[in-house]
Amino acid sequence: MARAEDDDLLVEFMVQLMEIDGDMPAERLVHEIKGSIKLMSPEGEEQPIGSLTAYLVNIAALMEEGIYLLAPHDMREQHLAGTVNRIFNFEEYEFTPAMLKKAGFPDSDSIQWHLHMFGLYLEPQHRDRRRGVRALRLLRWYTQRPGLLATARAFPREPSEHGSPTGAAMAALARYYLSEKALGFRQLGRLDQGWLIANWSSFQTASPHPPDADAGGDEVTLEGCPGLNEPTWG
């Protein structure tokens, strides 16, 4: 469980190992992180108000094993495949220099992990209090590690909706994410396309007491995956 230091906002994280494909087990290379966003009442009762989903990919291990980088991204979600095609040059087989410069990584080899924030949802009556970006701050605290590239796409859509949002709506949500300086996001390309990147190798915060981070579920003692069992603070 992770808790915001200045509010009654909680996020309970669950982690699962994912297969790359049917013939290739994950072997701790791909992790799906699901967060249940809750409010804590003065009486200690928890009220679910939303959820988030992210994927954490062990880039260094994929390179070491000789696994094609697109494989674990392409099988997960379209946004993941679209993201890796924007940040990685498959002809040169390295991360693009423009992305490295913008995210603040010295070279392609310095990226060891890739975290993609795939989905964030809050019930309508619990919006407009910056709870969404505060939940993402807890995700950053929870996953931070050396060499962590974080990406997201501002893609506002209700669960019952289909199709793509307008460029104006994507730009508005991207500005909302960019306004939270603790997330460190930078826009990648046009704002109305919604692509964002950040270097989450460490966490800078004005609070001297970062929140406790714990996880539930069966896959939390992940060897070689610090931060998903015990938090590491930068």
Radius of gyration, Cα only, in angstroms? 17 Å
Relative strand content: 25-35%
Class by alpha and beta content: alpha+beta
Number of distinct beta strands: 11
Average pLDDT for all residues:
79
The number of helical runs is 6
Flag low-confidence runs: 204-234
Helix-strand string: EEEEHHHEEHEHEHEEE
How many angstroms does the end-to-end distance come to?
Answer: 19 Å
Report the principal-axis shape: globular
Share of residues in helices: 10-25%
Largest sheet geometry:
9 strands, mixed
Layout of strands and helices, then pairs:
Blueprint (H helix, E strand, L loop, with lengths): L1 E2 L5 E9 L12 E11 L5 E13 H7 L4 H5 L3 H10 E2 L4 E2 L1 H7 L9 E10 L8 H13 L4 E6 L13 H12 L7 E2 L7 E5 L15 E2 L18
Parallel strand pairs: 2-11, 7-8
Antiparallel strand pairs: 1-2, 2-3, 3-4, 4-7, 5-6, 8-10, 9-10
What does this structure look like?
With 234 residues, this protein is of the alpha+beta class. The chain has a domain at 56-210. The protein is 23% helix and 27% strand. The protein is built from six helices and eleven strands. The protein has helices spanning 59-65, 70-74, 78-87, 97-103, 131-143, 167-178, and strands spanning 2-3, 9-17, 30-40, 46-58, 88-89, 94-95, 113-122, 148-153, 186-187, 195-199, 215-216. The strands form two sheets. Strands 1, 2, 3, 4, 7, 8, 9, 10 and 11 form a nine-stranded mixed beta sheet that branches. Strands 5-6 form a two-stranded antiparallel ribbon. Strand 7, helix 5 and strand 8 (148-153) form a beta-alpha-beta unit. The longest helix is centred in the middle third of the chain and has 13 residues, at 131-143. The chain starts with a strand and ends in an 18-residue tail after the last strand.
